């Protein structure tokens, strides 16, 4: 019973971490129409930058949590302005390929800067302990990740449903021309969305770093899981992404615990099943044409 | 009489979310009929075609083709059974040549599409190419045969749009605004070609150009607000007060556009 | 036409006499290029001709490679056995995966192929008893046909060359056949193809299976060539590499993927003696191609030819048959 409780907390925190990362990916895909295959790389930059900050600031995790996501967001802003903005006329597919090439470049760049060894960030002191609930000890950091994930989910839901920016984003998800009709500068929307996407990836990277560690090719592992969440949750639905990330988090964590050699296999199998039963994802809009 | 009904639409309804596009539309189409379908924009004409071709599944009601319920039959199967459409907006293979566009239709018609170990060229498929070239000639496009479609004028592309539909040898042909955007000369040319279609071919034609549609149709259906307003003889429809009300407003709008 | 025929004969002659021209090191390089060219050609059927961009083609390469490795180690290194078993295994795998993937299009197709290939990767990586896990399988005996041993690199080279020519010829027949034209039609406008009466989903599945099957053949040959296979050959980076080969070479042309494979293999050989940052270099080159030469080396070559000789002759050729997207007369 103890173990199940602990695993549950682990899996939910892992799922919400995936939620944070996938939200950025989903947002960019929905608005720009570009599947950003360098999204995992942005996540990785976030993790490595936060490593450097904690090392140089006497293990100040909070400083990293503030600065690193912004640094990543600025990176993605530069990517949008230099790489994507001049190439919109090439079509979405070419842009996806661009981000793919970029993922290659960033992979070697981070290896050149931070090396290929496995690195780790210690848990922030104030969150490193455990707290006892229902006669059971839970790691505080995991609970904090859950809290952050839930707050973010609530915030995103609020922004998308209740604010003008959210209305623009919802309009953009269903109809690009609508944004223009609303008299909004679409270029600005793209830039802002890409900035936010980068911020979320970087943020995910920082909070993931103390629990998942830093190692080469960490970006692709995360990217692929984020893609799975995106497919299962369906496009353009925060609720769908939320449900899918929790599902994947729980399934993956428990499988790794129960049948470690099949964990990833089960995750992808789950995706296949969802696609057979609900080809548009759990809560997404239609992508399959008959 | 029942034997002559080739297409029967039985209380077909269609809604997207809360928006009702078609309401209980019923229609019996006899073999060889030329039915003109008119109505203002948003009356549900193209949706009606999409349901007939299987591009959309109706929310309610059934469609019978030669007595068989085809409501759930996939669009490509309907094409092979003889229900063929053209599109309101040119929907061609823009990067391929006129000839290649047509050959794709003809190779399907002659069941050659699954030959995969023989190059498709004039030497190996003389009959196929002959038929294609003949059709291209009939439509006055012989100078354009080897041009890439997207380099052609709009009117020429429109012609190919219709040609691809007719080349299949359909039994029921659904023409969605065949002369839309064409010049008067091009329109006359198309109308002439449509007049020469085989007599036993059933044609449903959506058209905004009333001149064209009254010239071609022997029966008129007026769609209005998702339902059939009038179904009858062209002369009757031409003089109907309601049609005039709908269309006078429309033509004035068109004149301003 | 004459020019094209001449270039073709010259290329084949060069390939046939390679063992007498090149040292062993370069001969092996050519062998590797030919094997990866088969792999790239197979993906091109999907990406270039049917318009379905897959980021999971290594799955079938891996299925073929492991099938071949396991059979050669456990049963017999007979070449026909390993080749046809790999082909069959890859066909089965691609048929099953394809059924799901061809239902969707665009980026969803890309994501699904990627996810399925990672599924196969995780199986290969984690099931140590069958596939050797992360260590892979080594000491795979070189192929035999009867008593003929292909451990001799020259013999092996000719074997690969023969297969390459057969596959290249076969595929160029297929893409110009009525069936191949249907695939091109799907790439151009699937909706129209459906309304012409084509069951496009089946054709996409057929393309998927052809691509997967030949990908398996490439994997099988790659195993025999290296006498070693590891999970990294099934990893998505392999899918990425072959996609880059196709796109840098020129997708939707027959010669493009071959040039792409040659370009990547040669570049990697040169670069890796100077730096370990191979991925960064290939990433930058890939980005440059996507932005400036989306039609790849083939398109670049055509562009250069055009600017070099603006003679009437050339314009006559390009006017004769304007399907620039998929005709393969680059050599004229």
From TrEMBL, chain A:
GO cellular component: plasma membrane
BP GO annotations: amino acid transport
Subcellular location: Cell membrane
Cited InterPro entries: ABC_transp_permease, BCAA_transport_permease
Residues annotated as transmembrane: 12-35, 61-84, 96-114, 140-159, 179-212, 224-251, 258-277
Keyword list, A-Z: Amino-acid transport, Cell membrane, Membrane, Transmembrane, Transmembrane helix, Transport
CDD domains: TM_PBP1_LivH_like
Membrane topology: Multi-pass membrane protein
Highest taxon of source: Bacteria
GO molecular function: transmembrane transporter activity
PANTHER family in the record: ABC TRANSPORTER ATP-BINDING PROTEIN, BRANCHED-CHAIN AMINO ACID TRANSPORT SYSTEM PERMEASE PROTEIN LIVH
Family to which the UniProt record says this protein belongs: Belongs to the binding-protein-dependent transport system permease family. LivHM subfamily.
UniProt protein name: ABC transporter permease
Taxonomic source organism: Aeribacillus pallidus
């Amino acid at each position: 019973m103890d173990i199940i409780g602990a695993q549950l907390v682990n899996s939910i925190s892992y799922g919400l971490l995936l939620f944070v990362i996938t939200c950025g990916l989903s947002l960019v895909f929905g608005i720009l129409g570009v599947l950003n295959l360098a999204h995992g790389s942005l996540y990785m930059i976030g993790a490595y930058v936060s490593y450097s900050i904690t090392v140089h600031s006497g293990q100040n995790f909070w400083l990293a949590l503030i600065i690193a996501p912004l640094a990543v967001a600025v990176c993605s802003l530069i990517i949008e302005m230099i790489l994507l903005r001049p190439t919109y006329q090439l079509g979405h597919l070419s842009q996806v390929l661009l981000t793919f090439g970029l993922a290659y470049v960033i992979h070697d760049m981070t290896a050149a800067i931070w090396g290929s060894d496995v690195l780790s960030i210690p848990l922030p002191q104030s969150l490193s302990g455990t707290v006892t609930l229902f006669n059971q000890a839970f790691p505080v950091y995991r609970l904090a990740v859950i809290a952050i994930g839930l707050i973010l989910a609530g915030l995103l839901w609020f922004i998308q449903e209740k604010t003008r920016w959210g209305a623009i984003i919802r309009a953009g998800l269903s109809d690009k021309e609508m944004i223009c009709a609303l008299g909004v500068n679409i270029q600005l929307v793209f830039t802002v969305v890409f900035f936010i996407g980068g911020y979320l990836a970087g943020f995910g990277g920082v909070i993931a770093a103390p629990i998942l560690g830093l190692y080469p090719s960490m970006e692709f592992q995360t990217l692929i899981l984020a893609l799975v969440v995106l497919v299962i949750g369906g496009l353009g639905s925060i609720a769908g992404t939320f449900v899918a990330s929790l599902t994947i988090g729980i399934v993956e964590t428990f499988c790794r615990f129960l049948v470690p050699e099949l964990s990833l296999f089960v995750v992808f199998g789950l995706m296949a099943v969802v696609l057979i039963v609900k080809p548009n994802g759990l809560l997404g809009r239609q992508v399959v044409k008959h | 009489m029942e034997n002559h009904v080739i297409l029967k639409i039985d209380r077909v309804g269609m809604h997207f979310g809360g928006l009702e596009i078609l309401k209980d539309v019923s229609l019996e189409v006899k073999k060889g009929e030329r039915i003109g379908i008119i109505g203002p924009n948003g009356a549900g004409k193209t949706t009606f075609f999409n349901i007939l071709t299987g591009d959309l599944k109706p929310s309610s009601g059934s469609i019978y083709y030669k007595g068989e319920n085809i409501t759930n039959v996939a669009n490509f199967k309907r094409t092979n059974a003889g229900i063929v459409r053209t599109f309101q907006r040119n929907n061609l293979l823009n990067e391929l040549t006129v000839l290649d566009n047509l050959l794709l239709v003809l190779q399907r018609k002659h069941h050659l599409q699954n030959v995969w170990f023989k190059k498709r060229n004039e030497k190996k498929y003389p009959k196929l190419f002959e038929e294609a070239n003949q059709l291209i000639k009939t439509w006055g496009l012989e100078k354009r045969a080897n041009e890439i479609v997207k380099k052609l004028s709009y009117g020429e592309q429109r012609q190919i749009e219709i040609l691809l539909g007719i080349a299949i040898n359909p039994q029921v042909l659904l023409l969605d605004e065949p002369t839309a955007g064409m010049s008067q000369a091009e329109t006359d040319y198309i109308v002439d070609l449509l007049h020469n279609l085989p007599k036993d071919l059933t044609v449903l034609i959506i058209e905004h150009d009333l001149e064209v549609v009254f010239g071609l149709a022997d029966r008129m259906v007026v769609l209005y607000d998702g339902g059939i307003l009038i179904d009858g003889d062209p002369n009757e429809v031409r003089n109907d007060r309601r049609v005039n009300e709908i269309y006078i407003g429309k033509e004035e709008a068109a004149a301003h556009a | 036409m004459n020019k094209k025929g001449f270039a073709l004969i010259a290329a084949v002659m060069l390939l046939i006499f390679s063992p007498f021209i090149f040292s062993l090191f370069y001969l092996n390089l050519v062998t590797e290029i030919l094997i990866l060219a088969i792999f790239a050609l197979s993906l091109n059927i999907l990406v270039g001709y049917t318009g379905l961009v897959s980021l999971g083609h290594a799955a079938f390469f891996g299925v073929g490679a492991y099938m071949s490795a396991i059979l050669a180690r456990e049963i017999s290194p007979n070449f026909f056995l390993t080749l046809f078993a790999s082909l069959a295994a890859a066909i089965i795998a691609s048929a099953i995966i394809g059924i799901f993937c061809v239902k969707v299009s665009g980026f969803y197709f890309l994501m699904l192929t990627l996810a399925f290939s990672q599924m196969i990767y995780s199986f290969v990586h984690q099931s140590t008893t069958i596939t050797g896990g992360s260590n892979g399988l080594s000491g795979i005996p070189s192929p035999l046909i009867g008593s003929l041993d292909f451990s001799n690199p020259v013999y092996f080279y000719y074997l690969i060359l023969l297969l390459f020519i057969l596959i290249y010829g076969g595929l160029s027949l297929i893409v110009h056949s009525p069936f191949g034209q249907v695939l091109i039609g799907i790439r151009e406008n699937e909706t129209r193809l459906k309304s012409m009466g084509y069951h496009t989903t089946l054709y996409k599945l057929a393309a998927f299976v052809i691509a997967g099957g030949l990908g398996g053949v490439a994997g099988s040959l790659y195993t025999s060539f290296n006498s070693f296979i590891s999970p990294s050959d099934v990893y998505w980076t392999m899918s990425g590499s072959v996609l880059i080969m196709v796109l840098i070479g020129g997708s939707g042309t027959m010669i493009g993927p071959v040039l792409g494979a040659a370009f990547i293999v040669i570049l990697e050989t040169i670069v890796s003696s100077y730096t370990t940052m191979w991925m960064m270099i290939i990433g930058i080159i890939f980005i440059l191609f996507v932005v400036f030469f989306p039609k790849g080396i083939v398109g670049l070559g055509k562009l250069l030819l055009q600017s070099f000789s603006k003679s009437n002759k050339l314009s006559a050729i390009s006017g004769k048959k304007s399907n620039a997207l998929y005709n393969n007369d680059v050599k004229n």
